[in-house]
Amino acid sequence: MTTGALSGITVLDLSRLLPGPWCTMMLADHGARVIALENPRYASQGAFPDLINRNKEHMGLNLKSDTGKKIFLELASRADVIVEGFRPGVTHRLGVGYDHVKAVNPGIVYCSITGYGQTGPHRDTPGHDINYLSMAGALDLIGSKEAPCAPGFQIADIAGGSLSAVSGILLALFHRERTGQGQHIDISITDGTLALMHLALNLQQETGQTATRCDTLLSHRYAFYNTYETADHKFIALGALEPKFWTAFCRATGLEHFEALQFDDEKRHEIIQTVRDLIKSHPLSHWAHRFKDLDPCWSPVKTLSEAMDSKLFQEREMAVACQNRHGEPVQTIGVPVKLSHTPGSIRTPPFSFGQDTDKLLTELGYAQEEIQALKAAGIT
């Protein structure tokens, strides 16, 4: 029996791609019953990546049909949360928007995740992670001086979209618990990305200088917060921001004469080059041994595979064994929010398309012959 913090909460997930399904995975990991709904014609497209489909049920349902819409509203009348990721206005045109659901379930928490929000001049503009980063001023702070660099993972989608959606849903559920009132949540991935920029904006306001790539306090401007290549072509990350860490680093490397020059703008290029040449003169293992007992706020730059295989994430149960939808053993990412009394868990493997359709229709009271007729008509 599920005993997670969200046990008893039912979520209908109309979203695809990454931001919505990642959000509902987090809810499912903590005990919510998540039912993903998708048009049967997408069955062969594999729109949901396996890694974010765990702990969920799946139903194929054509919302463009009157019967499909009726079935959805029957499910919605029993649900607590709905998550959708269509462009603004699409769910309303389909007849499954917030107002339609509110009419049958006033307490519904209805979360819409879009690139630019339900209002504003870009509400109808398509986009992906790289676009949201660029519009929020984040991409301009990533990369070399020559050009911005698209990161190899989705920052805006997850940090700006998924996590904002999880927060909004939990806030709305808390409000409903006190008042009985549901509400519509408008999540803009670009809004959420801009909200990540507080420190960059604060530093810009304090210095009076526009933040630029590779030239801010925490982006390669100084030697103490930088990345360096080793002799064996690996990299280390140095985060010696506080003077005590910079002092420890300088003493560990024989660079004591730089201790008092941590923030010296005239000497910063010289210091960076000196550290760069020194770190490159020895392999990573040398520096790991040298820094072991001094802790100058450093770390090796690991590949994803190295991170997943590390003792850190093994012991933290963040790199865990599970099964894919075919029952084959795979490695996956665990539950990052650790609760002492109601811990999250991975209970079921990723779903196969439409695997729970019959069960869900039976719960709604449909007879077996009706279920078969819905399949034959392409509604489920």
Automatic annotation (TrEMBL):
Molecular function, one GO term: transferase activity
UniProt keyword Aminoacyl-tRNA synthetase, yes or no: no
Keyword tags: Transferase
InterPro entries from the UniProt entry: CoA-transferase_III, CoA-Trfase_fam_III, CoA-Trfase_III_dom3_sf, CoA-Trfase_III_dom_1_sf
Protein name, entry field: Crotonobetainyl-CoA:carnitine CoA-transferase CaiB
Lineage, top ranks: Bacteria, Pseudomonadati, Thermodesulfobacteriota, Desulfobacteria, Desulfobacterales
